[in-house]
From TrEMBL:
The lineage of its organism: Bacteria, Bacillati, Bacillota, Bacilli, Bacillales. The gene is pssA. This is CDP-diacylglycerol--serine O-phosphatidyltransferase. Keywords: Lipid biosynthesis, Lipid metabolism, Membrane, Phospholipid biosynthesis, Phospholipid metabolism, Transferase, Transmembrane, Transmembrane helix. It is a multi-pass membrane protein. One of its GO terms (molecular function) is CDP-diacylglycerol-serine O-phosphatidyltransferase activity.
């Protein structure tokens, strides 16, 4: 029983480790791998909360751990990725601009943590850091097709949108993990790997994570459909 309750936290720690590995890959110039690891982190992030509810293993520790993992994987890692691929040419100014993203992301997470119990379950206030970090990972993954000015505008916009008062639909009633994660994973990782033919260029972890994630999606879909039929 104790091991079962620790399973969601293991997924959260896996998310955090993906963020750490992404920073390492980016520092070594392996930018595609770094982006893919952020996407894998999104898979794990979309599963830990639902697993905690399924296993009745919700805890204050898990919620705090999730926020700490998110700021690394979807805040620090994407900002390093954008810095190493584009902002590095502006020197210290570029580094300072890249640092805005995790700062705003940390503020957004802190605000969410103290207000989530009072807010509506139908929307998020501000763009979630998970979605923002995933978008930056996608920009890097398809970097050769995206002009640098677009990267700059998106990076700046996402930084401010995270701390804005804009309401983003949560779609929590949809019987699948976060819709933004699904879009990011399948339009990003799958399309790039399949159409670019780069099967051997990415961490082997993706070949384990992707089938597991697809199985999880299928399970959630079938379970949600059966519930609707009963009602």
């Amino acid at each position: 029983m104790r091991f079962t309750k620790s399973i969601p936290n293991m997924f959260t720690l896996g998310n955090l480790f993906c963020g750490f590995l992404s920073i390492g890959y980016a520092a070594n110039g392996s930018y595609k791998n770094a982006a893919i690891l952020i996407l894998i982190g999104m898979m794990l992030d979309s599963m830990d909360g639902r697993l905690a509810r399924m296993l009745k293993a919700d805890s204050a520790l898990g919620k705090e751990l999730d926020s700490l993992a998110d700021i690394v994987t979807f805040g620090v890692a994407p900002s390093f990725l954008v810095y190493y691929t584009y902002f590095y040419q502006f020197g210290l100014i570029g580094l300072m601009i890249a640092g805005l993203f995790p700062l705003f992301g940390a503020y957004r997470l802190a605000r969410f943590n103290i207000s989530s119990s009072k807010g509506s379950q139908n929307y998020f206030v501000g763009v979630p850091i998970t979605a923002a970090g995933g978008i930056l990972a996608l920009i890097t993954l398809f970097g050769e097709l995206i002009p640098n000015i677009v990267t700059t505008v998106l990076f700046t916009s996402l930084s401010f949108l995270m701390v804005s008062k804009v309401r983003i639909p949560s779609l929590k009633d949809v019987p699948l993990p976060k819709y933004g994660t699904i879009i990011t994973i399948f339009l990003g990782a799958s399309l790039y790997i399949v159409f670019k033919g780069t099967y051997g260029s990415f961490p082997y972890l993706i070949y384990i994570a992707t089938p597991l994630y697809i199985a999880f999606l299928a399970y959630r879909f079938v379970k949600g459909k059966s519930r609707r039929n009963l009602n």
